[in-house]
Structure formats: structure tokens, C-alpha cells
Design brief:
- The protein has 6 helices and 10 strands, in the order αββββββββαααααββ.
- It is α+β, with helices and mostly antiparallel strands.
- It has 2 domains: about 5-120, MutM-like, N-terminal (N-terminal domain of MutM-like DNA repair proteins); about 135-255, Helicase, Ruva Protein, domain 3, CATH 1.10.8.50.
- The strands form 3 sheets. A 4-stranded antiparallel sheet has the order 1-6-7-5, with helices on one face. Strands 2-3-4-8 form a 4-stranded antiparallel sheet. A two-stranded antiparallel sheet has the order 9-10.
């Protein structure tokens, strides 16, 4: 699933080509908004909020999209040859100079701008947003001390934008087993600051590296490396699932560098 830094970069690219421009074509290919007529309206701004995109359109509309597990936006020059699209297209937006296509989007909503909170008001502080508040993030993260730190970090009510990749990498760098209870996770402020640092460092480019190495196969400490040797100690990286029944999410960890807490 695309994480907060990917959404931040996507928003910047869309804002660069769409903000201030009137739409010459607008198709929302979802049943509830199929008849919406946005042609002729100007895009005012494109704002990321955690893993959500908010595209504000005059006079007072917001097009909200969520990339879900594998959604994306592609941008091409208007009038140019468009490569064959095999994926489900949910949104098509065009100006005089570009066409932006949203593929495999998990959610598409069109709401009054004043109603954005109904869609994103539940989210915790965004490490890449103007609302970033580390103290509030720590307060929310520590609000359920009997929960595992692995589950708490992935909860968007606590921090907006953290996904499987950064969850696994933050816990490795802090030496925390994913099943450690929040109450036993030590200084949560360090966890929060590290999460923000990793997202902030990667926001300007599509590659996501937590090791400082952008070369393929060298970017991560544990994420996606099940069965491979830990870069730090050589122990085989493990892969498992964490979360309530029916909502489990995959995670990775080194059992040596991230020992289970003593009980």
C-alpha cells in the first residue's frame, strides 16, 4: 500500500500541473458520482492528508481519493499518445495541457469542502503535514497501552501515513519486536520522531530507502526480506501477520535485533 511519502509526492505532482487550471474534461467513473459535471471549474489546490488526497475545486468542492493497496495517478501531456491502460480507471481529469488518470483507486468521493472532516477528521497528526504535532502523536500512540506497538503504529488514528514498510523499519531501528505492548515500548517520542524522519527523508523521490542506499535490494533493513540475513547480525529475517482476526497485516522483523520483551 502506498504510504504517506508516496501520497505527498503524488499530491505535489498533481498540484504542479493542475492547480490554477480549469478542467476541460472530468470523469468520475464511480456510480455515486458518474453524473458530476466539473468541466470548466478550476482546481484550487491538491493537498495530501496521510494516505488521502484532497483536490479542492472551485467554488467549494473537494475530490477525495485514496490509493488503497495499489492505486496510482499517471500524468501525460494532453493530445499526446496515451499508452494502453489495462487497470481500472476511476478518475480522468484534463486541462488544456495535461491529462491525469487515477487508476485502481480504492475510494473516490466528491463532497463540499466544508465536509472534508467527515472523510479525514479522524486521522492523527500527519508527519508530512502542517498539522504535525509530535506530542499529540505520542499521546494517541500511548492511549492504548495494552495494544501491540505494531498495531498501534499502523492505526491511522494515531499517526497518519504510516504503513507496513515504515512500521517494520521503525521497529527494527528501535529494536522493538512488533508484538511488544505499547506500555513496554520505552520512549514513544523516539518512535514518533524516527517515523517522521524516515517519511520526510523519502518524500522527494519515489524510492523509499531506510538504509541510506537507494540501490535496488539495498533500500530496507527488514521489510520484504523474509528469509534473508539481517544486515546487522546475520539472523534470518522473519515474516508474520499482526492484527485482529480478519484484519491481519504482514510485517517483518529480526528476532535477534528485535527480541521479545521479558515478561
Amino acid at each position: 500500500m502506498p504510504e504517506g511519502d508516496t501520497v505527498w509526492l503524488t499530491a505535489r505532482r498533481l498540484r504542479t500541473v493542475l492547480a490554477g487550471q480549469p478542467l476541460t474534461r472530468a470523469e468520475l467513473r464511480v456510480p455515486q458520482h458518474a453524473t458530476a459535471d466539473l468541466a470548466g471549474r478550476r482546481v484550487l489546490e491538491v493537498v495530501p492528508r496521510g494516505k488521502h488526497l484532497l483536490m479542492r475545486i472551485e467554488p467549494d468542492l473537494t475530490l477525495h481519493t485514496h490509493l488503497g493497496m495499489d492505486g496510482s495517478w499517471r500524468i501525460r501531456p494532453a493530445g499526446g499518445r496515451w499508452p494502453g491502460v489495462r487497470e481500472p480507471v476511476r478518475v480522468v481529469l484534463a486541462t488544456a495541457s495535461v491529462i491525469a488518470v487515477g487508476e485502481r483507486l480504492a475510494r473516490v468521493d466528491l463532497v463540499p469542502t466544508s465536509g472534508e472532516d467527515a472523510l479525514v477528521g479522524h486521522l492523527g497528526p500527519d508527519p508530512l503535514g502542517p498539522d504535525w504535532d509530535p506530542d499529540e502523536a505520542v499521546r494517541r500512540l500511548g492511549g492504548q497501552p495494552e495494544r501491540t506497538i505494531g498495531e498501534a503504529l499502523l492505526d491511522q488514528h494515531n499517526l497518519a501515513g504510516i504503513g507496513n514498510l515504515y512500521r517494520a523499519e521503525v521497529l527494527f531501528l528501535r529494536g522493538l519486536d512488533p508484538t511488544t505492548m505499547v506500555r513496554d515500548a520505552g520512549e514513544l517520542g523516539r518512535v514518533v520522531r524516527l517515523a517522521r524522519q524516515l517519511l520526510w527523508t523519502n518524500r522527494e523521490h519515489p524510492e523509499q530507502s531506510t538504509t541510506g542506499d537507494l540501490r535496488r535490494g539495498r533500500q530496507h533493513w527488514v521489510y520484504g526480506r523474509a528469509g534473508e540475513p539481517c544486515r546487522r547480525c546475520g539472523t534470518r529475517i522473519r515474516r508474520g501477520e499482526l492484527g485482529p482476526a480478519g484484519q491481519e497485516r504482514v510485517t517483518f522483523w529480526c528476532p535477534s535485533c528485535q527480541p521479545q520483551p521479558l515478561t
